[in-house]
Amino acid sequence: MSRGIKMRRALGTFGTPHRVEDLQKRHDAQQTLPTLLCDSPGCGVSVRFVTEHTRSRADRTTPIHVPAYIALKKGVEHIRGCRYDAPGRLQTILAAGSDPDFLQALDDGKHELRLLLLQQGLKRGSNQAPASPAPTASASATRRPTTYQGTGQRLDSYLRTVADLLTLRAMCDDDAVLAAQLTLRLGKKKIEWSNFFYEPDRYDEAWERLGAASTDLPMALVGTVRSHRSPPPGASYSATYLNCTSKYQRTGVTDQMDFYEVSVGHDDAAWLQSFPVGADIVMFGLWRQGKTTSSIKVDSKDATRKITYVTHKLALWPGFKRQLALVD
């Protein structure tokens, strides 16, 4: 069962603040962990530290690394209004989404988010392919970024609602809280949350979904900013690229490793650079597959062995600034 929002800090019984990083160090040193309480004012319910670990998935050869976090203890819920109260925050977002054509209240008390309107709005704000994409871009360009596009009042409201929902989802440990109250629909088709929102350990699935799609699909990816790449003086392109930490995995093929790179391209360098290295961000829109490349290198631990590295690139050229949001 979902435990809602993953917490990064908590309080000890005497009000001492404890961060996840410090708790992990204490765990690694085999020290006793303190009793932990929610640090949101007025809440103070019991929470627990979950150490960093790996988990296996039947369809993947490489175990998934799960960073440490703090979660609710079993049978406990945050008070209403707590900053970690995921169901309460979701209801606030749903109540603020006043356009029934986009966010419709259903008879059973749940809601439906109609992604077709978002898809159409994003297409109107998208750009044309460049004559010569930047050769050094982290993700090969299939579209050219431009300066910030203004939005109509309704589309701006849609983008704000989606950004709020996706930021909340990124703070949770799975889809359960949102999926229980919010159905996604694209035209006549119901879309599962797992086919719309992708965390770093599922970049490969996002890549595969893009390759199988016959039309533009609105998708959301969450990532950690790794670097920014701006064009050097005299370059023939103007785009700056925000690059996220890549996912890599073993494929089951001997001496082959797959990498999945995620990048956002835009002409507004200052805007992209406002998302600092190390920050977690949500990126949503109409994604594109970049060019797949491969290289062969000698294994650093065995000079007689050569490894093939295959790099798959996913690129987003946002037409609207609300398509990127910081996960706090």
Overview in brief:
The protein has 328 residues and is α+β, with helices and mostly antiparallel strands. Strands 12, 13, 14, 15, 16, 17, 18, 19, 20 and 21 form a 10-stranded mixed β-sheet that branches. It has a 4-stranded mixed β-sheet with strand order 8-9-10-11. Strands 3-4-7 form a 3-stranded antiparallel β-sheet, with no helix packed on it.
Give a structural overview.
By secondary structure, the protein is of the alpha+beta class. It has 7 helices and 21 strands. The strands form 5 sheets. Strands 12, 13, 14, 15, 16, 17, 18, 19, 20 and 21 form a 10-stranded mixed beta sheet that branches. The protein has a 4-stranded mixed beta sheet with strand order 8-9-10-11. Strand 15 and strand 16 (256-266) form a beta hairpin. The chain is globular, with a radius of gyration of 21 Å. Mean pLDDT is 86; it is low at 127-149.
Key terms for this structure?
7 helices; alpha+beta; 10-stranded mixed sheet
Strand content: 25-35%
Note poorly predicted spans.
127-149
C-alpha end-to-end distance: 23 Å
Rg over CA atoms? 21 Å
Net shape: globular
Strand and helix order:
EEHEEEEEHEEHHHEEEHEEEEHEEEEE
**Major sheet details:** 10 strands, mixed
Structural class label? alpha+beta
The residue fraction in helices comes out at 10-25%
Number of helices: 7
For the residues shown, what is the average pLDDT? Answer: 86
Overall number of strands: 21
Task: Present the secondary structure layout.
Layout: E1 9-11, E2 17-19, H1 20-28, E3 36-37, E4 46-50, E5 53-55, E6 64-66, E7 69-72, H2 86-96, E8 103-105, E9 111-114, H3 115-124, H4 153-171, H5 176-179, E10 182-186, E11 189-191, E12 197-198, H6 203-212, E13 218-229, E14 240-244, E15 247-250, E16 256-266, H7 269-273, E17 280-286, E18 288-289, E19 293-299, E20 302-316, E21 324-326
Parallel strand pairs: 9-10, 12-13, 16-20
Antiparallel strand pairs: 1-2, 3-4, 4-7, 5-6, 8-9, 10-11, 13-14, 13-17, 14-16, 15-16, 17-21, 18-20, 19-20
Helix pairs in contact: 2-4
